[in-house]
Design goal:
Strand content: 15-25%
CATH architecture of the largest domain: 3-Layer(aba) Sandwich
Number of domains: 3
Strand order of the largest sheet: 9-8-10-11-12-15-16
Oligomer: single chain
Helix content: 40-55%
Distance between the termini: 53 Å
Domain Leucine-binding protein: 91-427
Family: Belongs to the leucine-binding protein family.
Transmembrane segments: 20-40, 67-84
CATH class of the largest domain: Alpha Beta
Organism: Candidatus Contendobacter odensis Run_B_J11
Shape: elongated
Number of strands: 16
Largest sheet: 7 strands, mixed
CATH topology of the largest domain: Rossmann fold
Radius of gyration: 33 Å
Protein name: Extracellular ligand-binding receptor
CATH superfamily of the largest domain: Response regulator
Order of helices and strands: HEEHEHEHEHEEHEHEHEHEHEHHHEEEE
């Protein structure tokens, strides 16, 4: 056998041979002692006459029983060694936490799929240091208290890292638990400023909202030439939406833009979006900015289009998933959105991932699936390089640079990565990069 496991199998063969030889020496050594005695018949101890038969058979003696026990003990050691050495290696456990249920589960499901694909491909290639990797999946239900409970549950089950969460509100509840346990959280998509530049166990593959929202604001002001905008945001994930709103406001107003109106709402199946749309358009404005998930953003676009078919609409990256286009239909044509990746990227690594994802799940990955695939691979690559006794956090920070399917992932000293922010527009039901 050639490869990383060859040494292990060589050692197992030596151990097996050693035990066999040891048992044989014990048996033969004992028999030799008696064979060397003058006139000793080695079989005399075992012969037994059957009366009136003229037949001799073997009989049990203390000598025979003693060597039976020795041989049995030797074989027991051999079988025990074989059982231990041939047992499959214990899997490495990695957790995943994301919103997998409810009306806005698209981001969490894509994240789960991306992480799952990364681990399946790694296992097909031999795992990590010859050990298989197991993904333990938990649904945070988009409830912070559930996210915290799932984090504790995963830690109790012995995970070495957690991929996720997918939203900022969940991350704020999970991070303190992970810090206490010294288990890293590798988030594919969390962007809140509240976790920026902290020496903790929270890592993320995306830029903070100040970079993403600022680029969106500059595009709306300088390219779209919007001067007066109304903004609406979701309170259900305000760790993200309020960060994004604040950063957008700063960049937009510093460039002579004006935020005429700011509205908020609680996301839910009973939310009425037509009254919100009417309120947004009540004053003269040049455009609307929506900071919400894909479902709510699509429904808002539909109601706004009923009132004004040509008003420019911008959506934050949280809402810019495939679900936005599926639900929004014609109402989201022309909508601009900040993005963290290019769906039409031609890099061979992305094309291979894209095809594998489609083959495995029957759909395209989107930014959530792509980011989670990269996040899981960061964890797997770090585990492969981790030295005995080294904290996984220190391994990641020592490596700093990891391969991504589109662009490399580069962490700073606090575990925050920076990704290029792209501006896209929906054309023909697809996100097309325009800047």
């Amino acid at each position: 056998m050639i490869g990383p496991d060859a040494g292990a199998w060589r050692d197992r063969s030596v151990t097996f041979g050693t035990h066999i030889a040891f048992a044989s020496v014990l048996y033969l050594g004992g028999a030799t002692q008696f064979a060397l005695l003058p006139g000793y018949d080695p079989l005399s101890e075992f012969r037994m006459d059957i009366p009136n038969s003229g037949v001799e058979t073997m009989r049990g003696t203390p000598f025979f029983n003693r060597w039976n026990l020795i041989i049995a003990a030797g074989l027991g050691v051999v079988l025990s060694t074989l059982s231990i050495s041939c047992a499959p290696p214990k899997p490495i456990r990695i957790g995943f936490v994301g919103g997998l249920s409810g009306r806005v589960a698209d981001l969490g499901i894509a994240g789960r799929n991306g992480a799952q694909l990364a681990i399946e491909l790694r296992n097909q290639a031999g795992g990590v240091a010859g050990r298989p990797v197991e993904l333990i999946i938990r649904d945070d239900e988009q409830k912070p208290e559930v996210a915290e409970r799932m984090t504790r549950e995963l830690i109790a089950q012995g995970v070495v890292a957690i991929v996720g969460p997918m939203t900022s509100a969940m991350a704020l509840r999970m991070a303190p638990v992970a810090n206490d346990a010294k288990i890293i959280i590798m988030s594919p998509t969390v962007t809140t400023n509240d976790l920026t530049d902290q020496d903790d166990y929270f890592f993320r593959l995306t830029s903070a909202t100040r970079a993403i929202a600022a680029k969106s604001a500059l595009y709306q002001r300088n390219v779209q030439h919007l001067q007066r905008v109304a903004v609406v945001y979701d309170l259900g994930n305000k760790a993200y939406t309020e960060s994004w709103l604040g950063d957008f406001r700063t960049a937009f107003t510093q460039n002579s833009g004006e935020m005429v109106k700011v509205l908020s709402f609680e996301s839910g199946s009973d939310t009425l979006f037509l009254p919100i749309a009417r309120d947004l358009l009540a004053d003269p404005i040049d455009g609307v900015v929506i900071i919400a998930n894909s479902v709510d953003a699509a429904l808002l676009c539909q109601q706004i289009r009923k009132l004004d078919s040509r008003l420019p609409i911008a959506v934050s990256e949280w809402g810019a998933t495939e679900r936005l286009v599926e639900l929004g239909g014609q109402a989201v044509e022309g909508v601009t959105a900040a993005q963290l990746f290019d769906r039409n990227n031609t890099a061979p690594s992305y094309q291979a991932f894209h095809q594998s994802y489609r083959d495995r799940f029957g759909q395209i990955p989107g930014f959530g699936g792509t980011a989670a695939f990269d996040a899981a691979n960061v964890v797997l690559d770090a585990l492969a390089k981790q030295s005995p006794g080294q904290d996984l956090k220190q391994t990641v920070l020592a490596m700093r640079r990891f391969a991504g399917v589109q662009n490399p992932v580069i962490f700073n000293e606090f575990g925050d990565a920076k990704r290029e922010t792209l501006i896209t527009t929906v054309r023909g039901g697809q996100f097309i990069v325009v800047e």
